[in-house]
Amino acid sequence: MPTEVTSLTKLQELESQIANLRDEALQELKSRRAELLQELDGIEAQMAGLNGKSAGGGTGRGRKRSSGAPGKSLPLQELKELLAGAPGKSVGIRQEGLDLKSVKTLATANPGLLRMGGKGPWPTVTLLK
Question: Rounded CA gap, 20 and 76, in Å?
């Protein structure tokens, strides 16, 4: 009996080919990424050599500082509006991306309006009025 090629078998063959092409493309991208990472490591080593620093980024001791942008510094009125809309009229300073130093300054200058709270690295600020 001759085998009939149906639409279903053609579709299955095409799906198999697509899966193979995806795998090949993924392997090519992974290979390219590995090459770029090696090139980047070489460039960083050259830069470190020119700066007179080790390419490893130091001894690995101590804490690394956050490379993120500093927090937002809001004026008192905007901070009051933010707190008024928050549940319990309180927000986590770091969670909101606020600048801790400026919020502490505002709370110290306005003790009847703002109160600092929270423990450790997660301070909060609360609107009292």
Answer: 59
129 is written with which tokens?
């009025």
**Residues 41-63 as b or e (16 or more Cβ within 10 Å = b):** eeeeeeeeeeeeeeeeeeeeeee
DSSP calls for 19-62: HHHHHHHHHHHHHHHHHHHHHHHHHHHHHHHHHT--TT-S-S-S
- pTM, full prediction: 0.47
**Residue 73 · residue 102 · CB < 8 Å:** yes
Torsion, Cα 110 113 116 122, to 10 degrees, reads: -120
Q: Give the three-state DSSP class for 121.
A: coil
Per residue in 56-73, pLDDT (tens digit) is: 555 455 555 555 566 788
Examine the pLDDT at 1 and tell me if it is beyond 50. no
